Amino acid sequence: MALEEKERIIIPDENGEEHLFEVLFTFDVDQTEQSYIAVVPVEQKDDEEVEVYAFRYEEKEKDDNDLSLFPIESEQEWEIVEEMLNTLANEEENE
Question: Residue 69: what pLDDT?
Fold first, then answer.
């Protein structure tokens, strides 16, 4: 996989302003054959409560480090992502 733990990526917003995010994790879902990424804004990463952003992504064929991000729109996709976030949060609490 092109992304490694604690990697940072830049994501432009709807106004074209670039924001730096830290990658929490990536995962693939076999039943949908899609890949997902969860990120937090770097300026929030050490806060007690952070806003987590999730996207469906595709790696561009030419460059493993270049991703195309897509908003998660279906309720089914959100349920899958939320389940993974809850699993990750539970694992961190148990460490």
Answer: 92
Q: What does the mean pLDDT of the chain come to?
A: 83
Q: Where are the beta strands (DSSP E) in the chain?
A: 8-12, 18-29, 34-41, 53-60, 63-70
Give residue 60's domain range.
8-93
Q: Where are the alpha helices (DSSP H) in the chain?
A: 75-93
C-alpha angle 74-75-77 in degrees, rounded to nearest 5: 65
Total-model pTM: 0.78
With a CB cutoff of 8 Å and minimum separation 6, the contacts of 8 are 20, 21, 22, 23, 42
Which pLDDT score, from 0 to 100, does residue 1 have? 42
Number of compact structural domains in the chain: 1
51 phi and psi, to 5 degrees?
-95, 120
CA atoms within 13 A on the CB side of 72: 19
- Whether 34 shows a pLDDT value over 80: the answer reads yes
